[in-house]
Structure formats: C-alpha cells, structure tokens
Write a structure and sequence with these properties.
CATH superfamily: Aldolase class I
Structural class: alpha/beta
Low-confidence stretches: 6-33
Distance between the termini: 32 Å
Shape: globular
Number of domains: 1
Strand order of the largest sheet: 5-1-2-6-7-8-9-10-11
Helix content: 10-25%
Strand content: 15-25%
Bound molecules: iron/sulfur cluster
CATH architecture: Alpha-Beta Barrel
Mean pLDDT: 89
C-alpha cells in the first residue's frame, strides 16, 4: 500500500535515503528560526516505562537516528523530520487522502491529513522547546522522584544534543538517564552524558565491516565514545540486542565481551514485532522471523539476559 507514501513528503523511505546522511549535521534541527532557542523533535512520550532505566520512568523518544539497524523497533524514529504515519493494516484504499489539500497542516505533505474516514493518518514528530517539554515531564515530578526518573531515548538523543542537554538541565532533581547508540562526535556525546545520572549504551557488533552492513555506519565513533563513557565515572549499562545470526553469534558476543570488560551488560532477546510498524511509515522490514540461539552468558563478567 505504498501509494499513499509515494510523493507525500518528498522523502524516499527505504534504506537511509531520507535526506539524513551524517554524524554532525543535526543542529539544523535544533534551532528555532525566530528565537534561536533550541527545539527538539519528539516522536513519542511514554509514561510508566519499566525497561528504560531504574524504576518506573517517563521516556522521551527523540526523532532521528544516524544508524539504520535492520532490526530497528522504532522505524518512525529514524528520520529526523516529522513524517506521515498510516495504520496501513486497516486501510481500505479509498484514495481520499491522496487528494491535494490547502489546509496549513496538510500542505507540507501534499495531501489531506484529516479526511480519512477511518482516522488512520497522523504526523509523527512534534516540535518542543526545552521549557515546554520540561514542564510536561515535571507535572509528574513527585511520582517520578519516588518511582524512577526520566529517560531520553530515540531515535538517537545525541543527534539533538543541544536540545537534550538543555532539557536535562531543567530536570535536575530527577534521576536522569539517556539511551544512546553512541554514534556522534566526542564533544556531542560528552555534552549529553555530562547532564545524566545514568547512561544506557548499545553495542551491537564488534566487527566494523559487519557494523556497516547491518547498521549502516562504521562503529569506530561508537567504540571511542564507549571509552569516554567508561572513564566518565558515570553509572552505565551496555545493551546488546540479540539478532539471530547477526549479533547473537558466539564470535560477536565474545568480541563484545572483550570490549566491555567488567561493565554491566544486558542482552536483549529478539522479537520481530517491529515488522508491523514499518509499512506505516512506508518502509520495508527485511529481517526473517527467526529465534535466538542459546546464549552463553559466561562469555561476560556481568551479564543478564532479557527476553
Ligand atoms: S540505533 Fe536504535 S534507533 Fe537507531 S536505527 Fe539502530 S535500533 Fe533504531
Ligand atoms: S483515506 Fe484512509 S482508508 Fe482511504 S486510502 Fe487514505 S488511509 Fe486508506
């Protein structure tokens, strides 16, 4: 049902051909044109999150990621720009939404966002100032203070580092965590983790060539930033997604265990639930439905397995 995506926002939706191409170009999304105040594009805010750091938390999902992991569970978070999302499973292909529309909301997408009789169309990605988003989070201050805290996830938070740092500064008093893939300049990485109490960092593949094939980029900046994190003195957790025959091989896990040493590690079991979301943003999920092999936890000094 890709007809409703063909020309909607001028963005090609497969691979990394969404107009974003690099490690240090995201500041163009950080500045409000009139105020020079950093603005952030957020694609979701999840309350009562229990897998994004200690306790029960509010998790903010920043839009845009420099990687293109083929197993990504948040395809709507890959592009740094707001984009159309359509619940394609219920679409009856009436074509009403493909008509041009002059409404302010609809013009950027070249079609009507409001006409769908099933209410299947939305725009994912909302712009916030740090003050606006901090106020939204802090209305639950008492609960978050006692139950867990706040986590900035994505997408990749360091792609909007100026906004994220400003936001985290406004959340002092809460336990503040960030979930990062670590692919950014050292300066950008440090500016974000310096505002955090806790960092969750992914390490997916040790081999640089395999990392390029499966995640779209070299892993050298990630490994450099991991060393920065280790020497920062901050509490952290390494996460390794277990992708069948890709990251869950004994060879890869043994190599990652060498990199992380005695760090705390969480190995995340694979499920292919993400596949269903891809069609909604006009992308194609290409990983086969497979199960993880048996994992030898003894490869790591401190690892737990989460399914
Ligand atoms: S780093 Fe995370 S958000 Fe980015 S593409 Fe990979 S899985 Fe998706
Ligand atoms: S208007 Fe709704 S049902 Fe009709 S084609 Fe568009 S998304 Fe599908």
């Amino acid at each position: 049902m890709n007809d409703i995506f063909d020309t909607a926002d001028g963005i090609e939706k497969s691979g990394r051909a969404d107009g974003f191409d690099g490690i240090d170009k995201s500041d163009k999304f950080d500045k409000g044109e009139d105020t020079h105040e950093p603005r952030g594009i957020v694609f979701d805010i999840k309350e009562f999150a229990v897998h994004d750091g200690p306790g029960v938390r509010t998790t903010v999902f920043m839009k845009g990621c420099p990687l293109s992991c083929r197993w990504c569970h948040n395809p709507e978070g890959l592009s740094p720009r707001p984009e159309l999302m359509v619940k394609t499973a219920r679409c009856r292909h009436c074509g009403l939404c493909t008509r041009p529309c002059e409404h302010e909301d609809c013009k950027p997408y070249g079609r009507c966002l409001h006409i769908c009789p099933e209410g299947l169309i939305s725009v994912v990605g909302k712009s916030w100032t740090p003050d606006e988003l901090a106020a939204r989070i802090l209305r639950d201050y008492d609960f978050l203070k006692s139950s867990g805290g706040v986590t900035i996830s994505g997408g990749e938070p360091t792609m909007q580092s100026e906004f994220v740092s400003e936001l985290l500064r406004r959340l002092h008093g809460l336990h503040r965590a960030v979930e990062t893939c670590g692919y950014c300049s050292g300066e950008r990485f440090t500016s974000v983790i310096n505002e955090c109490d806790y960092v969750i960092m992914d390490i997916k593949l040790a081999d640089p060539e395999a990392h390029k094939v499966w995640c779209g980029v070299d892993n050298a900046p990630i490994l450099e930033n991991f060393e920065r994190l280790r020497s920062s003195g901050r509490e952290y957790l390494v996460r390794v997604p277990l992708i069948p025959d890709v990251t869950d091989t004994r060879e890869n896990l043994a190599a990652i265990s060498e990199i992380v040493g005695d760090s705390r590690v969480e190995l995340l079991g694979y499920n292919n639930m993400a596949g269903a979301k891809y069609a909604g943003v006009g992308r194609v999920y290409t990983l086969p439905d497979k199960k993880n092999r048996e994992i030898d936890l003894a490869l790591f000094k401190h690892a737990v397995l989460s399914r």
